Amino acid sequence: MAASLFSKAPPADVKGAAKLQEVTNLLEKLRIDLKEKNLFPPQRNTLLEHLKILGRQPEDADPLYTKEGIETLARHSFESNSPTTSREALRCLANALVLEPCTRQIFVDLDFPAKAADRLRNDNRDDEFLVSRILFLTTYNTNLDFEKLIDEHHLADHINANISRHARQFSKSSRKTSGVAGDETALSETLKLLFNITHYYPARADVFSKSIPNILKILSRRRIADPPLQPPVNYLINSLINLDLEDKKAVHFGFNPVFPKFDQKCNVERFIAILDKAVGQYPDSELDQIAAPLVTLLRRIYEFAPESVRKYMQWSIMPSDDERQQALGTTNTLSARLLRLSTSPLAPSMRENISSLFFELSDKDATSFVHNVGFGFASGFLLTHNVPIPENAMEAWSNGHAANGENAAPAINPVTGQRLDAEAPDNRPPMTEDEKEREAERLFVLFERLKKTGVVDVKNPVEAALHEGRFEEIED
Model's pTM, two decimal places? Predict the structure, then answer.
């Protein structure tokens, strides 16, 4: 057996032939130890520690990513009687599966995922973190049958139990900004695994329904951090998306945990508070990735929410009457920031999601949608989704009638959503006839170009006016 090149931990920057030789030597010693048990636990742990350092970069570490290398690490991970040795090996194994995706199928072919699922039974946060990460990685680039792990190795039960353990940290009296760092990372890995399983096996999502109340409990009893969608909050939100929030099968609870009896709107209130903080703290490009699932979740909940919760969502998210003192989207309220995001070129997912949210909060009625957000914000969504634009979309409207015979409520500008009586007076001189003619020509050209794109079937208003005889000849 070749001697190690390093008596102490290898330097982090070792590379080339020296690194390759050291990795080969370490794996050989660990492989022989599996047969002969010739190492004391501290020696074994030291070898694994050195291998972990060398395995942080895949260059010149090829033996780690072979079948023999993965088998050696996996056996020390799941067959060792020492928790310390097992976890050191698990760290090496997890690094290998991250850095070289081809090793994930090797791990599956060696039939170790079943042992990994069994290990999740342990009430230990290091085991939870490492094993959940390894199983999460095998959801990509492998043919692993997770249904078998659920049915024969109780994978869903172990995941639900781990989430329940995390939820017990959050009592009614505590409002933690965060938990213990190790616990937080373990919870994040568990939630990522749950999300991927429910994404790839939607028919089995109901086996995780027991975790819905605990996920909601953690979300509701944590203080909202700055920024608000850092782990594990983003993973808590993501994990809910594929679950049966509507409780269609009605076998898990006697009530819907999304709308608890003591306060039906409390969870929605928390989601909206997180969204409010998020759109004020992240740039548009980051929001597109990190906040889009939260908007998707709110849209899902609105579909089956009780009427009182639906009303609350409309009141919290839609522009208020007070905002109509200015053009919609120009203030710093939640609705204004969402409206601006709905046109942001840097956030295509959020743009679509937010417009859909406003449309659904308008009960999918195009006229109400235009009235609620203004034609300027509504028109693009209606055109791209082939929703007929209301004939009166460009007419000023009133948002109600005053009582006791008083004057009707102020009229609203249909394009900007602003009250007409709050608009700044236009002190510009009226257009001359030449200016009107040039503007009509410009509009004619623009509508002709729009027609040629084929994106939307639009009738040129100048052409329509000409055909209807609404043009008159003006003498020179």
Answer: 0.85
